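Can't attach files on this board, so I'm pasting raw text. These are the components:
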Amino acid sequence: MAIVVEGTGLQKVYHRGRRNEVHAVNGIDISVERGEFVAIMGPSGSGKSTLLHLLGGLDQPDAGEVRIDGVTHASLSRGQLAGLRARKVGFVFQQFHLIPTLTALENVMLAGRYAGMPWRKQRGRARELLEQFGLGQRTSHKPSELSGGEAQRVALARALMNSPAIILADEPTGELDSATTREIINLLLGLNRGGQSLVVVTHNPVVGEAAHRVLHVVDGRISDPPPGGF
Amino acid sequence: MRVLEVFRNLGRRKLRTLLTVAGIAVGIWALTVMGSLSEFMNSMVDVQIEQSKGQIEVSSAYQMGAPGLTPIPADLRAAVAATEGVDRVVPFVVSALGKPGGKPGGDATGALLGYPPEETPNVVRGIRLDSGQFLSAGETDTALAGNALARKYHLKVGQRVNFRGVDFRIKGIFKPYEAIWMNGSLVAPIDTVRTVSSLGPDAGNLVVYPKSGVDAETLATRLKKIDPAKLKVSSPKEAEKDARQTVAIFSAIVLAGAVLALVVGGFSTINTMVMAIAERSREIGLKKALGATDGSVLREYVLESGAVGLLGGAVGVVFGVLATAILNGIMRARLGLAIFSPTPRLVVFALVFAVALGAVAGIVPAWRAARLDPVRALRAE
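---
Top answer:
Structure tokens for the assembled complex are below.
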């Protein structure tokens, strides 16, 4: 199968040369095939989120390189990398990160704007996604008027706005109760069944069980899973 | 939609936005009011230039104080009159008017102008009488009152009024005139003004009118050759330059205050934008994650600070125009003339300036926002 995201020899060091130097990612090789659902698990501070940021082009590795759909991040300017993020990557975050002054519909449309999608098309696509996620009646609601599950579904719709090559989700169920967590996992599984590639950073074993593959990250490296789990 | 978003963002911190808008509004208000005064001064200079078009003023090179107080020797006056191309020479003096009853003081805009009586229709080009008649040759105690002066002291045609110890009979009252000094002045026979001012018969500057077809600048050059050490000749172009320079200096002083107020408004906008960006770091991080370029983040915040400028500008201009209307009402009652001209070009300039000020004030904070590291921004509290 075709590889959608690939990272080779990835390293990311914070506070380099200082006493508090941290090797957040320390020589990780990772590849995700098209249509694959990969879960990244590990203890807090192990470098999971940093790895996700590197894969999504949100951060730059100190060593190694990342390719999305065959395009190497390092070969791109800041502007081109932003364009790549807009078209190829859909981010989902633990805290949803919806813009409080925008409605649910406008929050989803925002991703289309940065990808250069015409306004009418943005609106049509955003409506379609919100309806698909059962939020057809909530399009004009502000984030403060949405439940946690609804807010995360809006965030998921936003991530899908530009039909990305991959969705990178950073603990998408971290702030949700168990029922809503199940709801979001089902949505992710549904998307994956539709061919959507996913990389999900999680502490939740249920997400791990649902994934095709689980990568365990400890101290910035991929390692064997611990016997008792994280 | 983006415009709506900008205003929604401004609405997040209503009080802060309101105070920032107020800061700019005060500056723009000052700019509008002071600029209106400057516009009026400019229009007055235009009037002055228009009225002295084709005329050459000759004065003593040693002139001190008001025009005409320093005498020009008779031989030089004769030489001026005899110069080729000269049609006629009209002397005039300017003296203090004081208040009725011979008291000192009076309106700073008013003066006692002495002209040959028969030349009074030509005191100012295009000037007309509201009532009465111009002065005639041989008259000594008649006078023409400026419109504001007549209003101020309730002067009527035929009435006698004492200025500087002379019981002048008001023979005519001028219509309100664009040149402010004309409205507060009293025009009287030159010999009478010379006498009350203890000036000799040689006192008086000269207005030289060229013959038809003679270029005033060429004639001025000729007049300058008579006695450059004793005569100062001001050609129409030189007079225009001097007048414009005077107004430019005045305008610069007047506008400096307004600009200072605007600088304060600009700093307050910078502060607001820095605060807004600090508060919205996570949103900026998110937008970058969604694919926003540095340029689009920069544009977004510059647009927002420009909108602050626009709001401040609109409020400032509205209140500025209102203030000039009120002030003009007061001035009309006192001087018979509106001295604030909030011209359309001033209004447009004030608005454009406000938007530009807001946008420029927002550039540095917006640039910082655009360059934010998205990962750090997303983690911001």
